[in-house]
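Colleagues,

Please find the record for the two-part complex below.
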Amino acid sequence: MQSVLTQISVVVIGYAGFVVLAALFSILRWRARPPWLVSLVWMLEFLMAVRALAGVAAIAGGERPDAFATHVGYLAASVCVMPIAVGSIDADDEGVWTAGVIAVAAIAVSVIAVRLQQTV
Amino acid sequence: MPTPTTTRPSRSGAHQVLIVLYALFTLAAGARSIVQLASDAGRAPVAYTLSLVAAVTYAVGWYAIREAADGRAGLASVTLWIELGGVLVGGTLSLVARDLFPDASVWSDYGIGYGFVPAVLPVAGLLWLRHRRGSGAAA
């Protein structure tokens, strides 16, 4: 089970890095946020949901991390951060700073994914 | 006669990034301190309490920046200085009195555990406030 969790985490961290770069690219263009950026974000959220589901399944299967409360906290945060960040952006707001919001949230998600793996 | 745009809150801008950062740090510092205080408060009470203080400061900062974006900068201009003072005092204390910090707090070593974002955040907030005041004066 651990190897599966590690593989999913590697994919999530790599993809989150890609989303960060895409968001930074949007900021550097200094134009309206491109619509494809939000599509990338929801793909990242899907991957995080898969990682969280696998993490819950591992715990349900009898695995108990040493820092259990911390690990569960990271599991919960991993799926909450991106929807909260995107939800803070008004639907019709495509300003360049909204790409900054996405960049910050994607960095946070990648850090959470790393910490999640460290606390397994 | 005031136009509708003079009273309308500023929607898009750098404050959006600051607000998300403050929300994230409220969550991170709050969850960290609550877990640490609930599980083993006696191990590093000063560090864990300082993390809780940091969480409250970030929550107030989050609210203050939202208010400042709507044109009410009074609270932000106070709370951001308090936060900066907290990072500098907490960071320095963690370096000179290591025995008080057997475990790290959010502000230990000026926030090194969080990539120094805790030290940069209040400075960024104060610069944004200053820029906002400058823009307002020019308008």
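Residues 2-29 of chain A form the longest helix (28 residues).

Comments are welcome before we finalize the supplementary table.
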